[in-house]
Amino acid sequence: MVPEAVIECVSTLQKAGYPTYLVGGCVRDLMLGVEPQDFDVATAALPKTVLRLFPRVRPTGLAFGTVTVLSPLPIEVTTFRSDGRYTDGRRPDKVLFTDDVKKDLSRRDFTINAMAWDPITDIIVDPWDGRADLESGLIRTVGDPAERFGEDALRLLRAPRFASQLKFSIEPDTLTALSQEAPGLEFVAKERIGKELALLLMGEDILPVLQLLVDSGLLVRIIPELLNGQGMEQSRLHREDVLGHNLRTCSLTPPILPLRLAGLLHDVGKPGKFKEGPYGRMFPEHAGRSAALVPHILTRLRYSRKLVKQVTILVGHHMFLWRPSHGVPPVRRLAAQVGWDNFRLLIELIKADRKAIWGDSRQSGIFELEVAYRQVVAERPPLVASELAVDGKELMSSLELEPGPIVGVLQRRLLEAVWDDPDLNSRPILLAMAQQELNRLRQVSTQYDNDK
Predict the structure, then answer these.
(1) N or C, where is the chain less crowded by C-beta within 10 Å?
(2) What does pTM read for this prediction?
(3) In what order do the strands lie in the sheet with 74-79?
(4) Cα 375 to Cα 383: distance, rounded to the nearest angstrom
(5) Band of pLDDT at residue 45, cut at 50, 70 and 90
């Protein structure tokens, strides 16, 4: 699992007389049998020595002892160091280089990330029992939890993120400090919070972690709008309050970021307006209110415009009140409303929403919805006028029409007909239908003029 370039990098430093190890997340992942996404190297060699030993390098963070070796894989090589105070709550005010790997490991966030491994000799340096915590499935800070969280408050989110990704629990003292230090998250840049939240949401075991964000006071500092649904009862069909339903729906979606965000926010607008009905509390037009909140929430977390737009579309269309007796045409219209790129994601969101309500997949009708979705995808009907078998120019030519609104009206009527029956999407049939519709519209217009 360790690329040859990484082994050569470690070997070069060791042959020059400098103790060198792989450290951090790559060691953790290797011990878990997971292929690391990148490899970090820590060494006793000073940055100027690393610059001299390798022909192709990039001085990416000399103040903190980091040089990127290009061989050709980019490998971050950082000198063993101990950190001073973290006045800005993110980076140490100063760093002191050392030749002691244990001192270097003592500055790291969690024990499972505070191990060093020599891939040449297979020696593991583990002063904080990270290996034992890996085997026990525990997230534990290195040393005093309050001190670690105080150094960089983003670690408050990294702990639940690792719990989500690895299906681990958070050690009790670390968990207690998580709640006590939660206010520190307010001083972390929103962009950093957004990135960490995205990683957390992509984990496998997110429902208990999302509840942890609520209980610890972290979620209110990330998406306070969600907390408006805490304790707000819903209709008799719902097992949970609005907040709990948002969390559960999110957890039931596949691990795709726009989908997870849409699940989390799909009912965030419910608390804005409600009324009591025969089956309990109702929230009219809540999908639109929720969609209106999405850009504000996600832009605040510095997500891309593309992602914000996609989540807004999904949330705005999630209230698809469909039953098998309605047939496939409404599902085709749904595809036309959101486009092929969002259609699959929206179906998954609707299925998760229904399953969160009903619990039982058979009662929720998601199997029948999936069948209808697959039929629409197999048919691949036109979703916009330009995909019809007859375009606007051909309509004007065949029906002797001048450019104007009537062409758009006819195209819309043809689309509606094809959504009801995709077999109608052929040139002769559409032209005949267009002629009939044009005759009808002219007749209605004449009748209107006569009645004036």
Answers:
(1) C
(2) 0.91
(3) 57-61, 66-70, 74-79, 40-43, 20-23, 116-118, 123-125
(4) 15
(5) very high
